[in-house]
UniProtKB/TrEMBL annotation:
Name this polypeptide is given: Cupin domain-containing protein
Organism superkingdom: Archaea
SUPFAM superfamilies: RmlC-like cupins (SSF51182)
Domain Cupin type-2: 37-99
MF term (GO), any: metal ion binding
Keywords assigned by UniProt, alphabetized: Metal-binding
Presence of the UniProt keyword Metal-binding in the record: yes
Pfam families referenced in this protein's UniProt entry, alphabetically: Cupin_2 (PF07883)
Keyword Metal-binding: yes
């Protein structure tokens, strides 16, 4: 058995990302789920650009602020305290607009933890 209590602030940010990403799942040694904590300022996006996954399901819990998500059907607003579920093969790009008044804090869970990410080009 194993138990972990982790303060996300103690996890070093992942380098070279367009926003602050803390790989909480890696710090906890998780093998069956990706778990990341993001702090996104106005004008920044959550990695990975506009993309979709073959098999991975993603869940975004917005702790603070309003997260914007671009999809082929249009832009969605995920308000503070809400959860967004993204099914496999569903293109999305999560971001905070440049003109936003506040940053966003969100916890993102992805399972299974795969590298099945594909760039999505809306014009194709």
């Amino acid at each position: 058995m194993g138990y972990h209590v982790i303060d996300p602030e103690t996890v070093e940010p992942t380098p070279d990302r367009p926003c602050v990403q803390r790989a909480v799942g890696d710090a906890a040694g998780l093998e069956n789920v990706a778990l990341n904590f993001y702090e996104v300022e106005p004008g920044e996006q959550i990695p990975l650009a506009y993309h979709y996954h073959d098999d991975q399901e993603e869940v975004f819990y917005v702790e603070a602020g309003d997260l914007r998500v671009e999809t082929p059907e249009g832009q969605r607003v995920v308000p503070e305290g809400s959860i967004l579920v993204v099914e496999p093969d569903s293109p999305q790009r999560a971001f905070v607009p440049e003109d936003a008044d506040e940053s966003v804090r969100t916890l993102v869970l992805g399972a299974p933890p795969t590298d099945d990410v594909h760039a999505y080009e809306p014009d194709e």
